[in-house]
Amino acid sequence: RKMSNDGKKGRKTTAEIVKERKRAKKLHNATLAKRSTTTNKESTANKENKMKKSTAFLENVKTSLSKEEYRSFKLILKKLKSGSSHSELVEACFNKIGTIFSGKRESLRKEFYHFLPPTIRKQYAEKFSLSV
Predict the structure, then answer these.
(1) Residue of 85, 73, 70 whose CA lies nearest to 120
(2) pLDDT at position 98
(3) Would you state the pLDDT for residue 7?
(4) Nearest to 127 by CA among 101, 103, 104, 105
(5) Which residues pair with 9 in a beta bridge?
(6) Cα angle value 83/44/109 (rounded, 5°)
(7) CA-atom Rg of the chain in angstroms
(8) Alpha carbon distances (Å) from 67 to 29, 61, 62, 113
(9) d(CA 26, CA 8)
(10) Would you state the pLDDT for residue 31?
(11) pLDDT above 60 (res 3)
(12) Does the pTM of the predicted model rise above 0.90?
C-alpha cells in the first residue's frame, strides 16, 4: 500500500482491489462447485435408491399376483400415471387395488402409496386408513 505524505496508509490501489475481487470470486466459485458436486452425488444416490425400491416392489407384485391380476395392476398404473385426477376414475382404480392387494397381500397397499402421484396420495391413504 502506498503511504500518504503524512506517513499514514492511504487507499488501496486499483490493482490491489482487482486482485482481492478475483481472489474472492475464485473462492466463491470453488465453494459453489463443491456444493454442486455434493448435491449431484446425493441426488444420484437418491435416484438409484428409489429405482432399487421400485424394482423390488414391482418384482414382489409380479410374483404375488396371477397373470390376470398383474395385467390389471399395470392398467391401473397407466391410468393413475396419466395424470387424470377425475375422482370417479381414481376411486375405481383404488377399489381395484383394494381387491388385488387384499388378504395376504395387504402389505403391498402401503408400499404402493409411494408410487402414486402426490396429488392423489392423501385420498389413497384415507381410503385404506394408512398412516404415512
Answers:
(1) 85
(2) 94
(3) 53
(4) 101
(5) 3
(6) 45
(7) 29
(8) 55, 11, 8, 22
(9) 31
(10) 80
(11) no
(12) no
